[in-house]
Amino acid sequence: MAQTYEFNNVSANNTAANISALGPQVLFADQVSVRLDTDTKKLQTTSRFALGDGASLTGGVLLADDSAVETQFEQSVGKFVDGNLIFGYAPLTEIKADVRNYIFYSATGSTTEGFFTGVCNTTQSQDYTPALVSNSRNLLMISADQARSLASNIG
Fold it and tell me: What string of DSSP letters covers 85-125?
């Protein structure tokens, strides 16, 4: 019950569709690794979760599939809230400012921007808007309650 995808970690693949498709795979990955292929960094994810939105992944390829059915979910929360799980692509300075317990995967040719996962450490309000939001970064966020519910249904 797992699929392994390889995805080109390049800034051109930072699209809303790719974040939506890849987010569930990375947020709930059994394993994420980085591989250098010539001059291109590639993320490899092995996950029991299917690509989000049943989408295809631009810049990615399915490497392995055990033929079991993967879990599919299409949940997202729109507001930046302390404690939400988050996946996206952004400059490291923005990630460090508003995300804790993050894992940063620098993009090909960069040490300062790339894909990341982590936990929101602030809440968006009338008085404060995280840079990730104000700069319109492509993000997928789910609440801790949504994550618990998904985890309890996987077994």
Answer: EEEEEEEHHHHHHHEEEEEEEEPTT-SSEEEEEEEE-S---
Pair 111, 77: CB distance under 8 Å: no
Measured in whole angstroms, the distance separating CA 24 from the mean position of its chain's CA atoms is 7
pLDDT per residue of the chain (155 residues) written in tens, 0 to 9:
688 888 888 888 888 888 888 888 888 888 999 988 888 899 899 888 777 655 567 788 888 888 676 776 666 667 899 999 999 999 999 999 999 999 999 999 999 999 999 999 999 999 999 999 999 998 989 888 888 887 776 65
Positive or negative torsion for Cα 91, 146, 61, 35: positive
- CA gap 142, 79 in Å, rounded: 10
For the chain, report the end-to-end CA distance as a whole number of angstroms: 12
Beta-bridged to residue 64, according to DSSP, are: 4
Give rounded-to-5 percent helix, strand, coil for the chain: 25, 35, 35
Q: Sign of torsion, CA 114 117 118 122?
A: positive
